[in-house]
Every structure is written in structure tokens, then in C-alpha cells.
Write a structure and sequence with these properties.
Layout (H helix, E strand, L loop, with lengths): L2 H24 L7 H11 L11 H28 L4 H26 L2 H19 L7
Helix pairs in contact: 1-3, 1-5, 2-5, 3-4, 4-5
């Protein structure tokens, strides 16, 4: 992957993380909750049916998780747009640490909770996020 392609993919990935956080927050609005219901069902498969998104504790976790995810996406955006043009290796290293730390903490906790479907979803998401940072490039800085 060329450095230009890597930078573009990192920006797209940051936007996708922000959009995902906003999707989580949208689960707080009953008319917009259908995607979160499907995601929650997939994350908890095959263990159990998800809790109703109208439960107070579930709403709290949607709000908190959505906000943190938007913040994570913003951090990845800043690394891709502000630091990467000047110090691409440092930006890739920092972004990789952020993604790996999220992946290990989130997936480990999901495994403890029996949410194995979410571990699979996290693995796919982490692979997409890490690809532009770890794929070899003959032109990498």
C-alpha cells in the first residue's frame, strides 16, 4: 500500500469509527434504533437475546459507548490528518497502539461476558483499522 493510499484509508477509517459511534448514540432514539438492535443481537449471538434498548442501564451504556467511540474516531482522524503528513511512522505507531489497546480490552471483556459474536465483529473491525498501518509499503516513510 502506498503512503498516499494508506493515508486515505486511515482517514476513511476514522470517519467510519465516528459514524459507528453516532450509530450507537442513535440507538437512544426509538425510531433510529433498528441498526443497534441488529448489532446487539449479532454481538450477543449465540448466547442470549439482547436487553431492550429502552432499559435505563442500556441507554447509559449506549450514550457512554457512543461518545467514547466518536472520541476514538476523532483521535484517529487527528493522527491521520495532522501528524501523519509530518511524521507518518509515528502516526501509524500511535494509531496502531490505540486500535490494539481498544481491541484487547473490548474483546477480552466481551469474552468474559460471553459476547463471543462481538469478539468476531471486533476482530473484523480491528483488521480493517490496522490494515493501512501494517501492510508493507516500498515507499513508507
Amino acid at each position: 500500500m502506498t503512503p498516499a493510499t494508506s493515508a486515505m484509508v486511515q482517514r476513511i477509517n476514522a470517519i467510519a469509527v465516528i459514524a459507528f459511534g453516532l450509530l450507537i448514540i442513535a440507538g437512544l432514539v426509538p425510531e433510529l434504533a433498528a441498526p443497534m438492535v441488529l448489532l446487539t443481537e449479532g454481538a450477543l449471538w449465540p448466547q442470549q437475546a439482547p436487553p431492550a434498548l429502552t432499559e435505563p442501564v442500556t441507554r447509559l451504556f449506549l450514550a457512554t459507548t457512543g461518545g467514547l467511540t466518536v472520541g476514538l474516531g476523532a483521535a484517529l482522524w487527528l493522527l491521520a490528518t495532522r501528524l501523519a503528513p509530518h511524521q507518518p511512522a509515528l502516526a501509524r505507531g500511535m494509531a496502531s497502539w490505540i486500535v490494539v489497546t481498544w481491541y484487547l480490552a473490548d474483546s477480552g471483556a466481551c469474552a468474559l461476558a460471553g459476547a463471543y459474536g462481538n469478539v468476531v465483529l471486533n476482530t473484523l473491525f480491528a483488521a480493517v483499522l490496522l490494515a493501512p498501518m501494517v501492510l508493507p509499503s516500498r515507499h513508507a516513510a
